[in-house]
Input
Amino acid sequence: NAGVTQTPKFQVLKTGQSMTLQCAQDMNHNSMYWYRQDPGMGLRLIYYSASEGTTDKGEVPNGYNVSRLNKREFSLRLESAAPSQTSVYFCASSDTNVLTFGAGSRLTVL
Amino acid sequence: AQSVTQLGSHVSVSEGALVLLRCNYSSSVPPYLFWYVQYPNQGLQLLLKYTTGATLVKGINGFEAEFKKSETSFHLTKPSAHMSDAAEYFCAVSEDTNAGKSTFGDGTTLTVKP
Output
């Protein structure tokens, strides 16, 4: 049982490049989330999807887009990466009030 | 609006000693409260949660937390620290059942000395 799988685990980008972080869950959860974690800070919600076909902004959505491709998959896209987007990104899914997290994707923007 | 404050970004204890990690919250409605643990290069893992009912909540790995409404606190404790408890711990508060919209604290790094 894989839980929540994120790819890639590591990525280095140059300013202005684009990329997509992929997330998939196999727990049949309705809700999925993308967070970023910066040093010395807790997680901040970027976007979430309460169900297939819906997405909503979280606390820090600027510079990001998301797609809920189906019930299993929720991707996060950086259209034009900036150094301020250097962070560790976590995907999570939930059923009721229990979150299950992926292992994270470490992104560096030079 | 919801918010959470974790007192002490670093806590160091000796193996076998009491672990106490402090969390205070603010919420305009009865809160849902969570503690998560994060080991290096891993995602967060739920330790325990308070939703309603009993105010003393037991979690995994021998941890427990007590919801104290009058003190707006949800401190995490463990009677006897193990080396394997060394990790970062996050308190989180949510004003509804959607745990994904929680506000997370800045985290407390627990070091366990032999």
